[in-house]
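Predict the 3D structure for this chain.
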Amino acid sequence: MDPQLPTDEDLLQQMLAGDEEAFAALYRRRQAGVFRFALHMSGSAAAAEDVTQEVFLSLMRDAVKFDPRRGSLAAFLYGIARNQVLRALDRHAGRSSQAEYELAAPDADPLGHLTRRETVETVRAAVLSLPVHYREVVVLCELHEMDYAQAAAALGCALGTVRSRLHRARGLLAERLRGAAAPAVVAGQIKPARCSV
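Done. Predicted structure below.
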């Protein structure tokens, strides 16, 4: 991050002092990541929009609950998003949900685009099929590139729990993708787990 820009915590303090532009700056900085997390967790753009809105409403209501000793403001926001997604999943349990992801427009290589699209859809379906506690570590660590400590802060669990869940989740993904239309992912990017957690 540019050292000239205020940190998330600076913006939060300004927001608590009544600066509406500080809230807007925080929203612009963190909204896309929160939305992507909710989308990857729920498979629904509509649910992700609702979750994102609720995260920032919660921030306005409960910003004083943020404790920088427990993690970053981003981890705090992901923690709120996680709770909102879990509530949404509970509300919609039993209903079949079709992923509503948008993919990039086709390029000059239609066959290549189709292959990439099928691979992406296969991986997304595999991630969505994981139990929630495995899905959330995959989304945070693999898709959002959080380190284990950041993910642990967002999830409110121990660092070792994140490691073991991610290890098991990778194994489950490898099993689900084996033989599917994503051989490059199975062969090169997802490593099978050696033990169960």
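The mean pLDDT is 80.
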